[in-house]
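Fold Annotation — chain and its backbone

Encoding — discrete vocabulary of local shapes
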Amino acid sequence: MIIKRTAEKNNGGGFTLLDEGKYNMVLLQVTQGKSKSSGKDMTILEFKVEDTNVRLKEYIVDTNAFKWDQIFESYGFDVSPGSTYEYNTDDIHGKTCRAHIKQEPFTKENGEISYSNKIDYYIPPQSGNVSVKSSDDPF
């Protein structure tokens, strides 16, 4: 058996730190929940970064609801500024979008600085993304 892949940074604990950059991601699931800190309603989107074992979550609450605009725009939907839109997350489930992922520093309980993968922003199709596609379609 021949294995061909690009090696990933791994801290030994099963966590893979991606290089900062642009990645294709597939939307795996959308769930509703409550924010632990505020108790407010939130939506949780879970993505899988293509060609990796990395899964990332985006938590959307009222203070960052602008992310919906970025997300739907990254799938090729029209979200013109000032317009009102109504899209269904079922329309993007299992589909691929493109996003910029950054390494975000945080302090562990022991005071050590570590890094996590974080979705920085979503990239609209006219910025180099392909149109909405199934996750099993080749580019």
